[in-house]
Design goal:
Layout: E1 2-6, H1 13-24, E2 29-32, E3 43-46, E4 54-58, E5 65-66, E6 71-76, H2 91-111, E7 117-119, H3 122-128, H4 131-141, E8 148-151, H5 154-163, E9 167-180, E10 184-194, E11 207-210, E12 215-224, E13 227-234, E14 254-256, H6 261-274, E15 278-286, E16 291-297, H7 303-308, H8 314-324, H9 340-345, H10 348-358, E17 367-369
Parallel strand pairs: 1-2, 1-6, 6-7, 9-17
Antiparallel strand pairs: 3-4, 4-5, 8-11, 9-10, 9-11, 12-13, 12-15, 13-14, 15-16
Helix pairs in contact: 1-8, 1-10, 4-6
Length: 370
């Protein structure tokens, strides 16, 4: 039995850290780089009346194939991406070939090792990325959610912001990056906005508008099976809107926190409702002590928090979680055997760099040139 890591881009170091951790714990690891396909890797599905579907794919790490192999767990690091074919053939042909290649790749995810624990299952991942569904489910479970409008109707947006006192939090549904010059990149997540900034152009791009919560703490809850880790960040005197943008610069005072049991139970209920076994939940505690739900990221990064708070055994727990294949996983190991700081000192970093040189980088999906 082995753990399969589906690497979205070789540039993301957390996949290399988890592969290193699993090896250190003496677990077998296979790595698949789907962005190598179809430009420099193959993918095949064989079907007949007698046997279950057989999947054959080039792993990309050592050019070996995995076919009818059973994996304990499959970690789908992010949404599946395939390689860009536009430089290999006519752009019109490349567009059609990409649709065909993506069709086979998406089917592969559903047929590959059916008995495995998916982290997370691609169908659940796709549903979880829809923020309107997240908030509606959270509301049904009993969470406090900010007053929210998701719209491209300038009239409704003006009215909504006015009802909130003239200021709202503006968020995009997806991350977007604008390239400015040769090296500068600006990423949009969320900011404060007044109705004066909303004009007819808002009709071209729907967005999220929410009431401003007077936060005392920003909290991220990292869920692995049934194991929860909560990290808080003091927001009472902060100037930022999105704590993710200032985690290391403006307010580095981040520390583990214990949530009330009833709040923990609510978040586990949310994860089960959505069908996720892993996720990073963003919430806040206001100055009156009320908890507010903002969103759950089914593919959120977590190792940066262990880098800031070395006492958090996040890498060790995630590796054990994958190796267990148990959706009900609870940590039993008291002392971590693999730590992120040890990965940073190890040859695992060189593995990550080698991945970047050997494998195709997934094309940036949301790049806009200034």
């Amino acid at each position: 039995m082995s753990v399969l890591i589906v690497v979205v881009t070789p540039f993301v170091y957390d996949t290399a850290a988890v592969a290193w951790g699993l090896h250190e714990l003496c677990y077998d690891v296979d790595v698949w780089f789907p962005q190598d396909y179809p430009a420099s890797a193959s993918l095949s599905i064989e079907l007949n009346s007698q046997d279950t579907a057989r999947v054959y794919a080039t792993t990309g790490l050592d050019d070996q194939q995995f076919g009818a192999k059973t994996f304990t767990s499959i970690w789908l690091r992010h949404r599946l991406k395939i390689s860009d074919l536009s430089i290999r053939t006519n752009p019109a042909d490349a567009a059609f070939a990409a649709i065909e290649a993506d069709h086979l790749a998406q089917a592969t995810l559903h047929l590959l090792s059916p008995s495995s624990m998916w982290v997370n299952h691609p169908r659940c991942n796709e549903e979880a990325f829809l923020k309107p569904l997240q908030l509606d489910i959270a509301r049904k479970i009993g969470f406090n959610i900010p007053k929210t409008l998701m719209s491209n109707n300038p009239t409704l947006i003006h009215k909504f912001i006015s009802e909130l006192g003239g200021v709202a939090v503006f968020k995009t549904f997806n991350a977007a990056t604008w390239e400015s010059g040769n090296d500068s990149y600006l990423q949009s997540m969320c900011t404060l906005i007044t109705k004066g900034y909303v004009n007819d152009s808002a009709a071209l791009c729907p967005a999220i508008y929410q009431e401003v919560i007077a936060k005392q703490l920003d909290i991220r809850v990292i869920v692995m099976g049934k194991q929860l880790f909560a990290i808080s960040q003091d927001s009472s005197q902060a100037n930022y809107v999105d704590s993710r943008l200032s985690r290391r610069i403006e307010n580095p005072h981040i520390s583990p926190v214990t949530l009330p049991k009833e709040v923990e139970c609510q978040y586990l209920q949310l994860m089960e409702y959505i069908g996720l076994v892993y996720g990073c939940i963003d919430l806040a505690k206001d100055k009156a002590g009320v908890y507010w739900f903002f969103e759950v990221n089914p593919n959120g990064q977590f190792l940066g928090y262990e880098e800031i708070c070395p006492s958090l055994p996040l890498l060790d727990t995630f590796c054990e979680f994958l190796a267990s294949g148990n959706q009900q996983y609870l940590r039993k190991q008291k002392r971590p055997r693999v730590r992120f700081k040890d990965f940073l000192k190890s040859d695992g970093i060189q593995t990550s760099l080698a991945w970047q040189q050997k494998h195709i980088q997934a094309p940036a999906k949301y790049i806009y040139r200034d």
